[in-house]
Structure prediction request, 792 residues.
Amino acid sequence: MAKEQNERGKQTILDFIRKSGRVARIDIANECNISQATVTTITAKFLAAGLIEEIARDPEEGESRRGRPRVDLKLRGEAHIVAGVKVANSSISVVLSDFEGKPLCKSRKNLKESVSTTRKLARKIGKSIEALCFENGYRLSDLSAVGVGIAGFVDADSGFVHWSPSLEQRNIDFGEVLRARLGIPVFLDNDANLAAMAERYFWHGVDVPNFLVVTIESGVGIGIVMDGRVYRGARGFGAEFGHTKVQLEGALCRCGQRGCLEAYISDYALVQEASVAGTLIAGDTQEQQVLSLFTAAQEMEPIAQSIVSKARRMFAMGLANLVNIFDPQLIILIGNQMQEGLIYSDDMINSVKSSIVRIDNTAPQFVVHPTGDALWARGAAVFALEMIATQSLKEI
Amino acid sequence: MAKEQNERGKQTILDFIRKSGRVARIDIANECNISQATVTTITAKFLAAGLIEEIARDPEEGESRRGRPRVDLKLRGEAHIVAGVKVANSSISVVLSDFEGKPLCKSRKNLKESVSTTRKLARKIGKSIEALCFENGYRLSDLSAVGVGIAGFVDADSGFVHWSPSLEQRNIDFGEVLRARLGIPVFLDNDANLAAMAERYFWHGVDVPNFLVVTIESGVGIGIVMDGRVYRGARGFGAEFGHTKVQLEGALCRCGQRGCLEAYISDYALVQEASVAGTLIAGDTQEQQVLSLFTAAQEMEPIAQSIVSKARRMFAMGLANLVNIFDPQLIILIGNQMQEGLIYSDDMINSVKSSIVRIDNTAPQFVVHPTGDALWARGAAVFALEMIATQSLKEI
Prediction:
C-alpha cells in the first residue's frame, strides 16, 4: 500500500520485536495483523541493516529436534549505542545503553550550582558523557546519539528550551548547543516526559496504554502517555503540572504567578513556610532541611505537622484534578518525596480518592516508584534510541 | 497489506471525501498517500455500497470540454439518515441529518422536569424523534441510527450512564433502554464530547487537530480533541472539568464534594450566593435569576459585582489549568454564558492568559461560540454517522 503505511508497518514490527524480546516471524504476523510475506520482507531489511538478529530457539519440550530449527528475531544490541542524560537540580546522571535498551554503564556527578549558563551546562554534560565513555572503553564516536532530560519547557521536536530552572538564559536552542559540542545527534525533552518513557519501556507502564507519571524533585513534573505515546501538547512544551493553580491568588511561586501547586509542595516552599513560623529545621542543604521537616511532622511537632498536612492536601487536590481530567488507568508517582512519610502517605492517596469523580467502577491505580536518577537517564536513552530507530527505518 | 491496515485505508479515504466535500480520485491518492490503484478499488466498493456517488465536474475555465469529463466523488447524502439528540436541563433538541452531515429538519421541546426516571426520559426522547420524523415525512425505520448527547459520566463505547444530572437513577444502560424502545441502533455520549465533535466537523475545529471545548450550561463540561479524535479516558467516561477542584475544602458542590469549579460558577451556585447575601435577583426561573445577577453586576451593584467577579476568576483559574496541562492550539468556549457580560468577559480571558505558563511563543487562541441547542444535536448526529460509517466499512 502507500509509503506512509509501509513506514508505519516497519515501525510496528520493530516496536513489536523490541517489546517481545525474542519473537518468531509468524508471531509478529499474527500479533501485528500483517501478512507473513510483508513480515518476511521487512525483517529481511532489518537483518541486512543490522538492526535485528536471528537466534535459534531451543526446541520446546516434546518438540521434534529434527527438521528446520525454529528461529526467533531480536533487536541487535550492538546496532546502536546511545547515552542518556538527566540534568537534575544537584546532579548530572548519565547511562550508556545498547539498542535493546540494556544499560551498559552509568555515572552520577554532583553539581555545585543548580543554575548554570548555557555554555557551562553544555560543558558539564559533555564532560560527564566523555568521562563515562572513557572509563568504560568507549569513544564518543561510538555513540549514535545522546538523549537529554531537563526540567522546564522544552520543545522536544527541535530541542529548543523556552525555560529551564537549570539554565540562566531563556529561549536557548540547547539541543543545537549540545550537538555542536558533541558532534553527534542530540535529542532533548522535558525530564518528566522521559521518566514516562522509561516507565513505558521498562517498568509499570509496559502494558498500560494510558497512564500519568507525576514526579516531585525540586519541582513538580508530569508525563502523560496516551495510546502508548507521550503527549507533548500543541506548542511542543508538553504538559505542565507544577504551575497549575490550586489556590486563587494564593502563595507566590518562583515563576512569579500566585497559587501554583509548586508554591505549596516543592522543597523551597516547605522550607520557606517552616522558616516563617520559626520552626527549627536542621540541615545545611535544602534537601536535608526538608527531611527534618518531615521527621518533625512524624514526631508530631504541631507546626511541622500543619505544614506537611497542607502540602499533602494541596498535592492530593492537584492529583485528583489530573485524574478527573484524564481518567487514566494508572498514576505512577516518581521521586524520593514519594516515600511513605514524606509528601506521599496513605492519607494523601485517600484524599485523592475522595476528590475524584465517583462512579461505580474500578478506581485508577496508584503506584509509587521512589527511585534514583537511573530511571530518568534511562528514559533519556530510550528517547535517543527511538529517534535513532525512526531515522534508521527511513533509510531502509 | 494486512486487514487492519485496509480498514484504516478505507476509513482514511471516507474521511477525506467527507472533509473535502467533492474530490477527484487522483487527489485522494495524493493527499492520503495511498496508491491510485488502491483508491480506485476502495472507492468502487464505496460506490457499489451506495456510500458515495460520482458527480461530473464542470470544466474549469480554459479547460478543454472534449475528452473524458473529470469526475469528483462525494458522500451520498441519502446513504443514511440519522437523528441527533441533545438532552439539556430544560429541553430536548433533535436534528435529522443526512450522510453528508447536512441538517434536514430540527425541533426543540421544553422539559418540565430537569431530572426524570429512566423510563420517562426514554419516552420523551423517543416521542421527540418520532414527532420530528412524522412532521417531516420520515418514518422511524428510515433512520439508520440515533446519537444522543447527555450530561454526566457516560461510557460512549457501551452507552452506559454511570451518572447523569438528567436521570434519577445511577448506573443505567441507557443506550440499551433507548435501543429497545426505538428498535434502531442508539449511540450515547457525554454532551460536551459531542459538542467537540460538532466543532471538529463544522465549525472552529475543522482544521485544528488539538483543541478543547469548554461548555457552561447548568453544569460545566469539557471535550478534548487530540490528533483529531475525541479523547474519552481510560474508564470511558471522558474528561471531567466541572468537578475539578479550584479551592481546597471550598464550597460544597451538589456532587457532595467540596471546592468543585461548578460550586463557584454554575447557575445554582450563583443564585445561592446571591440569596445568602440577600441580594435581590428578579425572575422566576434560575436562568432568569442568573441573568438579573449579571445585569446587576454590570450596573455596578457591589454584591452582584463581587459574586460575578469571583465566579469569573475561578473560571479563569480552571481554564488556565486546562491550558497548562494540555497546551492546546485552541480553546472553544460554548454556551449562552459565554456572551460578553456574563461569565465570559475580556477580563476573564486576560486573567486566564496571566495564569498560564509564560513562554515566548504564540499563546493558544480563544474562540467564543455562544450557541443554541442545534450545535449539540448536530454533534450527536455526527457521532451516529461516524458509528454507522465504521459499521458500513466493516461490511464492505
